[in-house]
# Entry
Amino acid sequence: MSTAISHLNIEVTKKCNQRCFYCFNDSGKGQSSTELSLQQWLDILRDLQQKGLKSIHLTGGEPFAYKNAVELLAGAQALGLSTSILSNGLHLKGLTSEFPDVFRKLAVAQISLDSTDEATHNLRRGNSRAWHDAMSAIDALRQLGVPLEISCVVSESNLSDLGALAEFCQTVNAGLIIRPIIAAGRAANQKMTDSFAHDLELCVQSLTSSQHVHLVADRFHYVVDEHQMRQPQWPSDLATVHHDGRLRFNHADDINLTAVAA
# Structure
């Protein structure tokens, strides 16, 4: 591997308690997941930390469907790495109570929320507890003083919800990440109308013009399509590693980090 990695997005598992119709990597309850052990992940992080790694972003699937997620965060923090998460809220209320020191050290917690309307969010995510899990996680993380960002995947069916979601973000002092639906994974056959991109742009412009709305970019460049990855401005020191150790990197395809760290 010729280029040092300063940031690593870790798709620690493909398992997920939800089944979003737009999931770009087709995660879900029925997914078999060849997961690395906690020790394998820590060996990888130790090796990359010595080569310049500064931060990790834990995601999935749902990262807290991986049984050693908290231990992985704690191990990364012990190595001096900055840590963050992208979660739908699964188990977070209990975990933040049991391991408050680990969660307090997070640089940011991104929680997925597609609407302030419970029924809309649950329907999009194929889980009747999705909204409850997200809200309870947001409340628990706020109590610990963890910086928050709300991650919203936008399609035509929830575009009109963005205004209310932006207002909600103000009340919980969170940034809002707007992620347009990507035609990949379970959304491969999702067709937006010709006006969707234009309508979304107008909505974002309206929100941006409000001094009270805090729109933020995906600082970790995690959710991305192939066109973006081929662009010259794509950061060369950021990468995503899959649950089985394979690395997704714009200029280094199909590297297995378990072999690199061995």
Remarks:
- The chain has one domain: 7-261.
